[in-house]
Amino acid sequence: MSVVTNTTTIGAIDAPSRRNTELMLLGFAVAIPVFAYINVGLALDGELPAGVLGYGLGLGLLAGVAHLGVRKFAKYADPLLLPLATLLNGLGLVMIWRLDQSPRLIQRVESLYGKGAFSPDAPKQLMYSAIGIALFVGVLMLLKDHRILQRYTYISMAVALILLILPMFFPAVNGAKIWISLGPFSIQPGEFAKIIIAVFFSGYLMVKRDALALASRRFMGLYLPRGRDLGPILVVWAMSILILVFETDLGTSLLFFGLFVVMLYVATERTSWIVFGLLMSAVGAVGVASFEPHVQQRVEFWLNPFAETTWEQSNQIGQALMSFGAGGTLGTGLGQGDSDLIGFAANSDFILSSFGEELGLAGMMAFLMVYGLIVERGVRTALAARDPFGKLLAIGLSGAFAIQVFVVAGGVMGLIPLTGMTMPFVAYGGSSVLANWALIAILIRISDTARRPAPAPAPSPDAEMTQVVRP
């Protein structure tokens, strides 16, 4: 008996989307902050806080909306990025609410600005988080393919420069010009500029990487770039110095230049760019610090945080260091620390010290590990990306996130001079929350494209007829 059959191409096996895994992890990411909220309430008043149900439902609703957005618009995205960001955002809300309950902080604000001047920050931060989730879903919905951003390489450069220059024309806040104030509203454009700069660097380096990597001379084991290829790094170096001089913003300057050096190294695989970057950053920082009073003051506070002559100005750094010491290995417990003594910056610049005191060294290691996991998933997304622009963009966004965490944590812990930047997701501030949720959305879009299975080729109408003989 003989049977004649058509042979057709077998389609690719559909890869698992891992959305159910993400949903399960989101449950833990919501439950942990809710238990932390209950813990703080019990520590402060000995009873369950009245708003625990509303907080749990609110955070769960935000996480559910974000999950539905990913399930709808980025089915194959990395399942860890959203739960990790939700966990940090939720813990940040808990700590901000905990500081809102401090009688000493309320008394200090009212003594400075009058009775009734204190306004709790936790409700506003919850509103910013809701807007951030809406922006997150909007980016996933509108950005169908991350490669579209490559078309706007030089436009993004112009937009980034405008965002970085605008604060120069507004009054300084705490010595640094990093804010744009419009009536009752204020935004920190540097938080959004880091994303736009990563888009520009990715598009530019994708085109120029061969010239930067291959056209060089070897000297003492290093590949020295040609003079004409030094142009881009000199321009970026000059921009970072100008930001440091005119805005006295050490954090944005470090982030801006460090991001470019990291992406240069990834694009060219030349260690010489790292060496040049470190040398140029050192020269620029020393040069500016020699004549810029605000930078000199930051360095002086860093070197002598407990000096009597500077204690009135540097007491926040000293209080932060003492709060880390008071926390010990296991911490004083949520709601039982004294980090509110740091003052008005306890829930923004120095919120990490609040966690350090109440969670201790063990809690801080776990906390920083969550940030490390976000960076690791971003790097893994870069490795899995199928196009060079996506690889560079993913590594740029991950690098910007990592540099910001290092700069903030290093400043609060006394490893480097304080920069005034905010810890992503946990610190109080609308600009930071919105920008970082947009950053996570772009990483999720790139990971969705990278993990999405290739479509099966359509069967050919001229498929070969094969005769199969069966006995």
TrEMBL record:
Could you confirm whether the keyword Membrane appears in this record? Answer: yes
On whether Glycoprotein is a keyword of this UniProt record, the answer is: no
Any one biological process term the GO annotation gives = regulation of cell shape
Q: Which UniProt keywords apply?
A: Cell shape, Membrane, Transmembrane, Transmembrane helix
- Subcellular location as annotated: Membrane
UniProt GO cellular component terms? cell division site; plasma membrane
Which portions of the sequence form the region Disordered?
A: 451-471
Task: Give the Gene Ontology MF terms in alphabetical order.
Answer: lipid-linked peptidoglycan transporter activity
Which Pfam family is an annotated match for this chain, by its short name?
A: FTSW_RODA_SPOVE
Q: Give the transmembrane region(s).
A: 23-44, 50-68, 80-99, 126-143, 152-170, 190-207, 228-246, 252-268, 273-291, 359-379, 391-413, 425-444
Instruction: State the source organism's domain of life.
Output: Bacteria
Instruction: Tell me the membrane topology, using the record's own terms.
Output: Multi-pass membrane protein
| Name used for this protein in its record | FtsW/RodA/SpoVE family cell cycle protein
Q: Which organism is it from?
A: Streptomyces pristinaespiralis (strain ATCC 25486 / DSM 40338 / CBS 914.69 / JCM 4507 / KCC S-0507 / NBRC 13074 / NRRL 2958 / 5647)
The uppermost taxa in this organism's lineage are: Bacteria, Bacillati, Actinomycetota, Actinomycetes, Kitasatosporales
